[in-house]
Amino acid sequence: MSKGLVIREAHFPGRAAIDAYGNGGFRFADMSHRGSLLMLPSGIYGWEVSEAAGVTVESLKRVLEEAEGIEFLLIGMGDALQPIPAPVKQALKDAGIGSDPMSTGAAVRTYNVMLAEERAVAAALIAV
């Protein structure tokens, strides 16, 4: 008996540079993903955030769980630069993670450079 369609959480087990972004998604590692992404040392995950207001301590739980492997988190806030909410900034600081908000395009470019330098970087990218 068939179980029908099984929907799994989007996950790519590894690190990869972003090849392209826009039209509501990203391309990386010869794949494409529609929606926002968390780029972490453990892999690349779909992220349910679609606007800057969704950047919360709860939405970044996976980042905080991997804090030991992350020195810096780039947060792509969409089309425009917006500040990181104070509780999020504090939770990241308490976990020993530096953070910087920027537009998603700037975050993608910075992430790719830091990844190429083999830095302990992660990114939370809102799709544009």
Keywords:
21% helix; 3 helices; single chain; 3-stranded antiparallel β-sheet; alpha+beta; 6-stranded mixed β-sheet; 128 residues; globular; Hypothetical Protein Mth938, Chain: A; 31% strand
Summarize the structure.
This protein has 128 residues and is an alpha+beta fold.
Structural class call reads: alpha+beta
Count of all domains: 1
CATH superfamily: MTH938-like
Could you tell me the radius of gyration in angstroms? 14 Å
CATH class: Alpha Beta
**Contiguous helical run count:** 3
Protein name: Mth938-like domain-containing protein
InterPro entries: MTH938-like_sf, NDUFAF3/AAMDC
Pfam family, one: DUF498
Structure write-up:
This protein has 128 residues and is of the alpha+beta class. The protein has a single domain (11-125), classed as MTH938-like (Hypothetical Protein Mth938, Chain: A, 3-Layer(aba) Sandwich), CATH 3.40.1230. The protein contains three helices and nine strands; from the N terminus they run ββββββαβαβαβ. It has helices spanning 61-65, 86-94, 104-116, and strands at 11-12, 18-22, 25-28, 31-34, 36-40, 43-47, 72-76, 98-102, 121-125. The strands form two sheets. A six-stranded mixed beta sheet has the order 1-6-5-9-7-8, with helices on both faces. Strands 2-3-4 form a three-stranded antiparallel beta sheet. The longest helix has 13 residues, at 104-116. The protein starts with 10 loop residues before the first strand and ends with a strand. The model has no long low-confidence stretch (mean pLDDT 92). Pfam families: DUF498 (PF04430). This is Mth938-like domain-containing protein. InterPro entries: MTH938-like_sf (IPR036748), NDUFAF3/AAMDC (IPR007523).
